[in-house]
Amino acid sequence: EYSTNRVTAVPYDPADREIWNRFVKSSKNGTFLLDRDYMDYHSDRFHDCSLMFYKKGVLIALLPANHLKDEGTVQSHGGLTYGGLITGASFTAEDALEVFSCAIEYMKDKLGANRWIYTPIPYIYCSLPAEEDMYALFRNSATVRKTEVASVIDMTNRIPFRDSRKYGISKAKKRGLDVVEGNFGPDLEAFWNVLAGLLDAKFGSKPVHTIDEMRLLQSRFPDNIKLYLVKEADTVLAGTIIYDTGTVARTQYIAASADGKNCGALDFLFWHLLGETFATRRFFDFGGSTLYGGNHLNEGLIFQKEGFGGRAVVMNTYEMLF
User: Fold this and answer.
1) Is the link from the previous residue into 77 a cis peptide, with omega within 30 of 0?
2) Among 20, 134, 235, 315, which residue has the least CB neighbours within 10 Å?
3) Which residues contact 219 (CB under 8 A, 6 or more apart)?
4) Which residues have a Cβ under 8 Å from the Cβ of 300 and sit 6 or more positions away?
5) Which of the four pLDDT bands, split at 50, 70 and 90, describes residue 16?
6) Domain 152-316 in CATH: superfamily?
7) Are 10 and 52 within 8 A, CB to CB?
8) For 307-318, how does the pLDDT look when each residue is reduced to its tens digit (9 = 90+)?
9) Residue 269: which of 291, 238, 296, 300 has the closest Cα?
């Protein structure tokens, strides 16, 4: 462990798993992605250097992080959409300053690091205001390294769909299509074939997860990870995998076949999910639409998300040098 004036940093140990997970559940900004049962699915690919911060013997914050030794870099977190400090309701701006200075001293001293990459948890995922870390970033001369634009719908203040989306919905209705919740056996496989084919043809890329990883994660978080499909007979026309935190429903993957695109299957799918399935969520997050570290906006993709009423929430990644 490592102590500064008021705060002690303790490196995470797998024996602390339950303490970590309990804190995430009771925090004001933690989500299931930051639960160890989620985070650790790719622990073989990341050198974990997560920290737990104590003040007067009480756990006040967690930092999910991984260490890139060769680059002298700590990332919060390299394998997740967001990381940053996970904090409780009593956490203050002053606490954040103390935790940051303790973390930086620890990283320099114990890890030989000179750089900290930090992606805060977006405000839409917080149950209470939780931007204490943003002030600490400023005080530690953090610079913006990357800006990702997510398209988000405030479900308490929705704006109408664009006509192009409405046209797609009416086409799908005329065809008599239905939205169903899919299973993670044959349904996932059928969706994955559409998704993988699409990513390969368009970007020469693969899904971030393998199908086996997706099944593993869904088996650990069956209430949070769902598959929704538009099918005709046994053919998947369109689908999405949703990560549902209870506050925010987020699209992790979206795909449609050529036929699905022509008949408005995706428009119909999101019309249903927004109007019925997730109508009671606070936010619906379509995720990002940028490429190359935020330097290229995929205009076709964001046009579609904005057509459903999504508007910009930026996700910044910061860099601190020390």
Assistant:
1) yes
2) 235
3) 184
4) none
5) very high
6) Gcn5-related N-acetyltransferase (GNAT) (3.40.630.30)
7) yes
8) 999 999 999 999
9) 238
Long-range contacts of 186-194 (CB under 8 A, 24+ apart): 187/227, 187/229, 187/236, 188/214, 188/215, 188/227, 190/229, 190/234, 190/235, 190/236, 191/227, 191/229, 191/236, 191/239, 191/241, 191/255, 193/236, 194/236, 194/238, 194/239, 194/255, 194/256, 194/257, 194/260
Phi, psi of 104 (to 5 degrees): -65, -45
Beta-carbon contacts of residue 55 (< 8 Å; ≥ 6 apart): 6, 7, 8, 95, 98
Hey, which residues does 321 pair with through a beta bridge? 115
Provide the residue ranges of all domains of the chain, joining segments of one domain with +: 2-140, 152-316
Q: Tell me the pTM.
A: 0.95
Residue 51 amino acid letter: L
> Largest Cα–Cα distance of the chain, in whole Å?
68
| Identical fold, 2-140 and 152-316 | yes
The DSSP output letter for 48 is: B
What pLDDT, in 10s, does the model give residues 139-195?
999 999 999 999 999 999 999 999 999 999 999 999 999 999 999 999 999 999 999
Alpha-carbon dihedral sign for residues 243, 244, 249, 255: positive
| CATH annotation of 2-140 | 3.40.630.30
- pLDDT tens by residue, 21-51: 999 999 999 999 999 999 999 888 999 999 9
Which amino acid makes up residue 91?
F
Contacts of 30 (CB under 8 A, 6+ apart): 23, 24, 62, 86, 121
